[in-house]
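Incident log, structure service

09:12 report received: a user says their structure output differs between two submissions of the same chain.
09:20 pulled the input from the user's history:
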Amino acid sequence: MKLKHSVLLICLMIAASLSAQTQPKTLVVKAGTPIATIQSTMWGLFFEDINFAADGGIYAELVKNRSFEFNKPLMGWTKIGEEYAGQFQIINSQNENNPRFLRLESLQGKELGLTNEGFRGMGVVAGENYLFSILAKQEQGASALKIELLDSTGLVIGNAEVKNFSGDWKTYETKFACSVTHPKAQLRLTLSGKGVLDIDMVSLFPEHTWKGRKNGLRADLVQKLADLKPGFLRFPGGCIVEGHELETRYQWKKTVGNVDDRKLIVNRWNTEFSYRNAPDYFQSYGLGFFEYFQLAEDIGASPLPILNCGMACEFNSSELVPLDKLDPYIQDILDLIEFANGATTTKWGKLRADMGHPAPFNLKMVGVGNEQWGTQYIDRLKIFLKVLNEKHPEIAFVGGAGPFPDGKDFDYLWTQMRELKVPLVDEHYYRSPEWFLKNASRYDSYDRKGPKIFAGEYAAHDKEGEDAESRNTWKSALAEAALMTGLERNADVVYMASYAPLFGNVNAWQWRPDLIWFDNLKSAATPNYYVQKMFSTNAGTDVVTALVDGKPLTGQDSLFASACIDSKTSELIVKMVNVARHTASLTLSLEGKQPSVKEINLQVVANANPGAFNQVGKPEEVTPVERKQKISGKKIDISLDAYSLTVVRIPIKK
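09:34 re-ran on a clean worker, output below:
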């Protein structure tokens, strides 16, 4: 009998537990009472040239080391031709920004040339036109240059010829079609005829780029950014801003003007990680500040440039500019504001116009420094802010809270940010999924009268496997969704947020996880991307209260939620996250407003396997789906899938 009673007791406990799991909770949503405005910049993008995100990524140039300016001038190039048939000479010119060029000297009139391997190969598409250009000068003799695309077996899959070179430096262009789709093609240049030809800026672009701009950006990657409908674009980083040392910091003035004259430098991620060395990683600056501003405008995002504050990366050299030598660094920001917003009669405004954009870029925000910390950062920030606030009170300047989301440095910086009355403070958190779940209420107790929050870099770091994309699990994305409900719920203090990093090349990455993975031909949205998209495309205009038993849902019974209204479309938007392995029921009880329809739309992304992730070139494991649900009255029963993010849009009566 005792055994029977024990079994009965266990059964009753299990039944009670299951009943508790399935018992609907009521989420009371005060749809008629907005409590905070959601900034148009709430959900945005962070771009840094890491993981070959620029050269070899979004910048569509296919030729690596096109101007022979790498530390090893012929890196990426392989010489071809009979021994002693000719010479390959690297010559230094008087051009400070682009000093090197290659001299090809055919001594016997036999074919001489070289091949370029591209960025882990060149992705080319059958039927696509490719634009070849070269800066060249005929020193003596008469030569023709044969241009060929080769597949991995050496088969010619596209070709053209350039000839009639003059004795002055000129740019020569031609166009040809590719006959085969291939992920790892190479470019071969062959000199015919006896003579000497100097060449520089060897370039190959697909004709089809974003918005059809000649020598522009890779269309499929930019489209993924545009689909997020971001509120802002932060650029160019990141640690790129700081540099390993000050000499290799990002200097925006060297990235504008004629592309031929932009000074290439080593990428600071070149040898940052010994286990992911990339000695061929440089910055050509074909993607420079003009292109960043243009990209932001194209995708409807507010530009947020970040500039160096006179400090190199504190994890590397910690090199500092003396306090009395900061003027050039401050002037860089003043000149950047003029470049972005100034009249075309000003020096930098005229350059913007000369580059094809007479209208201002409407810059409203600038970041000073990236992940600096300590008194040395504050000493410099004070000097910057004094000048900048006097000269440009219309610009909101962003300060940083360091590389970590807590600790003594974080606390010190926040104390200083309050005293300096910095408008926006940039917080970063790369932490475990569990940390994200625990911090969904992080901003509930933040000072409402202090600086506003820019969650400038965040990503949940789950376990990693052999596949490049393996760290972008559904578990990590779901944890981020939980935290993001807390960001939205606290939109009166959180003004901006962006996942980081943005891009990862599966064949040339240094850091993971990343929001979008790609190879030379294809790209894949991660589960994290879909979470970002579901929030950013359902941003709303005003937060409304959503409570269970008088409290926000911040993890009770593994549930998280936030709610807002979109005053432009007269809709209530509720975001709900279930991180449990069982389904959950939630009843939405609307107060103050009434649905204006009998059927609503639900967007759901769910997967029973928290370890699932999406891969380039394979069917996606984690993707959103849309559902419809009939409703009646102000109470709406919602079933939340296990491990899911659900977004409900409910048209409401005005």
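09:41 both user submissions now match this output. Likely a transient worker issue. Closing.
09:42 reviewer note: The first helix runs from residue 2 to 22. The first strand starts at residue 25 and ends at 37.
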